């Protein structure tokens, strides 16, 4: 049964306990099957003997095996019940402690994928290991290893932004620095990512580095004037025909109030 000390444990401890119980279940299941075969063999022997002292001995053996099997089945059932209760405790802990982040990440993931996915769900795989699934609008789940590289990047960004938003709910802000995270995004998804970063920039500073001019143009065309500041960095010295030519930095183009900062290098 579930021990008192199992109550209130963290998921890692409970999952280890589940593994321990599963290890105990395997030999019990094998013993149950073996005893079932032995009982069947003894019954066949008893029917073949059709009475006599040998039949009485076989009957006694059958009864002993049945009594042993009953005890093993009861123990097996208790362990199965304990494992199920512990799994339920793990799931309840995840919902209570990861729910806010997962809910935010699911909303952001739907947004960053331009509606290709509707959200996220935490689950357990066939080995009892925790996994994260993307949910299609029709509810069909998709594992991370089945996602494209771009979609996986969008999932990572959604989780990162959701975690930071949850952290900011109870802590002082600190800058978010990202470097060319939109290289695998098409324009529609890149636009949603830029808007998500702009929303976050109203809570904390966002520094976005890129060498893709079309992303800068996309940001300038769509983001509000009070969140965008574009600064073009100087390139390093370039050696030409044995001489060093330095490219001077462009004059920064400032918008009203800087908060979100796409930067090209």
What does this 3D model show about the protein?
By secondary structure, the chain is of the alpha/beta class. Helices cover 54% and strands 15% of the residues. The chain has 5 helices and 10 strands, in the order H-H-E-E-E-H-E-H-E-H-E-E-E-E-E. It has helices spanning 11-49, 53-112, 149-168, 187-200, 213-222; strands at residues 119-124, 130-135, 141-143, 176-179, 206-210, 229-232, 238-240, 243-245, 253-254, 260-264. The strands form 3 sheets. Strands 4-5-10-6-9 form a 5-stranded mixed beta sheet. Strand 7 (238-240) and strand 8 form a beta hairpin. Helix 2 (53-112) packs across helix 3 (149-168), helix 3 runs parallel beside helix 4 (187-200) and helix 4 packs across helix 5 (213-222). The longest helix has 60 residues, at 53-112. It is elongated and about 100 Å long. It starts with 10 loop residues before the first helix and ends with a strand. 18% of the residues are buried.
């Amino acid at each position: 049964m579930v021990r008192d000390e199992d109550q209130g444990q963290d998921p890692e401890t409970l999952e280890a306990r589940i593994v321990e119980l599963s290890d105990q279940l395997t030999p019990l299941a094998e013993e149950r099957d073996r005893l079932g075969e032995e009982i069947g063999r003894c019954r066949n022997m008893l029917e073949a003997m059709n009475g006599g002292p040998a039949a009485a001995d076989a009957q006694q053996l059958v009864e002993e095996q049945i009594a042993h099997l009953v005890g093993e089945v009861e123990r097996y059932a208790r362990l199965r019940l304990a494992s199920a209760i512990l799994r339920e405790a793990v799931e309840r802990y995840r919902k209570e402690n990861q729910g806010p982040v997962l809910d935010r990440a699911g909303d952001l993931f739907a947004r960053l994928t331009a509606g290709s996915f509707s959200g996220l769900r935490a689950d357990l795989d066939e080995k009892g290991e925790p996994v994260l699934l993307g949910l299609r609008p029709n509810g069909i789940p998709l594992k991370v290893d089945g996602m494209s590289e771009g979609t996986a990047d969008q999932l990572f960004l959604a989780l990162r932004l959701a975690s930071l938003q949850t952290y900011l709910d109870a802590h002082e802000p600190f800058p978010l620095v990202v470097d060319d995270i939109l290289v695998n995004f098409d324009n529609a998804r890149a636009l949603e990512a830029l808007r998500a970063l702009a929303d976050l920039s109203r809570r904390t500073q966002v520094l976005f580095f890129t060498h893709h001019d079309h992303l800068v143009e996309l940001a300038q065309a769509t983001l509000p004037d009070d969140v965008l500041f574009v600064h073009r960095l100087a390139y390093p010295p370039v050696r030409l025909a044995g001489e060093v030519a330095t490219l001077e930095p462009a004059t920064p183009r400032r918008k009203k109030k800087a908060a979100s900062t796409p930067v090209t290098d």
